[in-house]
Amino acid sequence: MRGSRPAIREKDFGIWQTWNWAQTEKEIRALACGLAAYGFERGDRLAIIGDNRPQLYWAMVAAQYDGGVPVPVYQDSVAEEMQYVLEHADARFAIAEDQEQVDKLLEIKDRCPRLEHIIYKDQRGMRDYNHPFIHYIEDVQEKGRQYDAEHPGYAEGKVNEGKGSDIAIMLYTSGTTGKPKGVMLSHDNLIITARNGAIQEGLTENEEALAYLPMAWVGDNLFSLSQAYVAGFCVSCPESSETVLTDLREIGPTYFFAPPRIFENILTTVTIRMEDAAPFKQRMFKYFMELAKRVGTRILDGEQVSFMDRLRYMAGNILIYAPLKNVLGFSRFRVAYTAGEAIGPEIFDFYRSLGINIKQLYGSTEASVLITTQPNGEVRPDTVGKPCLDVDIRIEDNGEVMFKSPGVFVGYYKNEEATAETKTSDGWVHTGDAGFFDADGHLKIIDRAKDVGKLTDGSMFAPKYLENKLKFFPFVKEAVAFGNEKDYVATFINIDLEAVGNWAERRNLPYSGYTDLADRDDVYDLVQECIEKVNVDLAADEHLSGSQIRRFLILHKELDADDGELTRTRKVRRNFIADRYQELIDALYSDKSHIRVEAEVTFEDGRKGMIKADVKIREAAMTTVQPMKEAG
Fold first, then answer.
1. What CATH fold (topology level) applies to the domain 2-162?
2. Burial degree of 628 (CB within 10 A; 0-12, 13-18, 19+)
3. Which residues fall within 8 angstroms of residue 308, CB to CB, at 6 or more apart?
4. Exposed, middle or buried by CB within 10 Å (0-12, 13-18, 19+), for 71?
5. What would the CATH number be for the domain defined by 257-448?
6. Is the dihedral of CA 122, 127, 129, 130 positive or negative?
7. Is the pLDDT score of 193 beyond 90?
8. Deepest of 102, 186, 270, 487, by most Cβ within 10 A of its Cβ?
9. Strands (E), 422-554
10. pLDDT by residue (tens digit) across 533-570?
11. Do residues 298 and 355 touch, judged by C-beta distance below 8 A?
12. DSSP secondary structure letter of residue 46
């Protein structure tokens, strides 16, 4: 029976404490009844703020137990951001992890007139907080046990009142294009999506997961709560954000999610350590990693590999792959997901070549996460897979991806206009992303729909897709692609000073700085090789073959937020760059092979100066794919 199996763990003071499912049910019931004792009613909102903690997960379910709606808030939110969410959500109750979060709630309480009660989990620093509306969670639970005893049948009655169509949770969007929106998801949305995902991946009660991503993020609610409850597996909460990698090694999860930056950072750490290793170890590592790159992914996907290569790979597993996975905490991975941003093919292939089943998924808050995933044996770095179970996808005439599924959100709280703009009357949802299905039925996301254009010959032009493919190369730091309503695609390139500088130093090529390095013919050769590799990839894609890059230049200066060319999060300000460098763009669409430029730059100390350079323009080779001959 599930009751005796582990449900959730927490590491505190270096020791893992475990609650089984029977104990978890009792904790949740006590908290639900405690909330009811303080007046929490069906439809009330409970704000939840803090790191991943068992008590905060219990609070989410306790609110649902009572027919209420949990509203998790990002724990790093400043008081003003927290105020907007609590005020907009009409939260009457809030549960906070510690003193820091309680202080933020006290700061905004006067501006949130509906907020009546604050509950805290961690007692440290709370001794002198004697406000009558502040309660310790264990006191609330004790009050709940008394309430439960005095009101027999209350808990069961509340559960029986609930319906699958009831709102289960409200999650707020990031608000990058305006005020955050409260996405309302029902119990059916979460439970059916969680069940379908578990069926697709064969998840069982034997899985182990690590809950370390924000509780306010929809993915954590699916992977660490909904699927854990549906499949019955155990979720572990790390001691702190600083100990995640250590806790990962100790737990050895079988089911894992991480954004690309996590996988990238881990690979960088491995690379740096190998550079400090003894020469013999470096040679052995290089040999077996080259072998893994050649056959590892094929073995993982069940493809045919020669007996000798399998034997060599087994030796590599004993000497390199298994010890490395053990150090990283990846030894028991059955399924590892990544999503959010594009992940570099080399990074993706590195992990899969070690036998780690890392896959990409595509999802959104409005979908209860899952829209597409990559089936086993059909995993590629350039797609996001096929539609998940019970998900329908269609591509609009403008290339926008739309979906319909059991996970489609109920609506945006207090925002019927935004709901109508996003969700059609028959349940289809606009993603705002442009994409297409390849010949094998895999979805490719290429750009935001509003940014996709066309060349004069009608070929699709997706600037971000091209820029991301270029930035996968370590020598390219930034890229800006042009082509909408043009005859061909052309690009600006910013080289990565550190990567190209190291490359130059290994070849004894002297240079004085970025501008000098960017002007060298051998650096142009290096960048041209990267571009032509991208063109080969594009040529094999019937949708994007027409958007190969014909001409390029290496900018004489690094794009800089201080000069207004990038945002503070290093996103290219495309329109600003187009205005500032119109002369260079015009030269790319002419027969010029170089152009003389002057540019004002801002130095780190705030001083301004001028850079003069003779910028070269190169032609890149375009690739033509030969049509396949018919057999016979």
1. Rossmann fold (3.40.50)
2. exposed
3. none
4. buried
5. 3.40.50.12780
6. positive
7. yes
8. 102
9. 429-437, 443-448, 453-454, 460-461, 476-482, 489-495, 549-554
10. 999 989 988 888 999 999 999 999 988 877 788 765 56
11. no
12. E
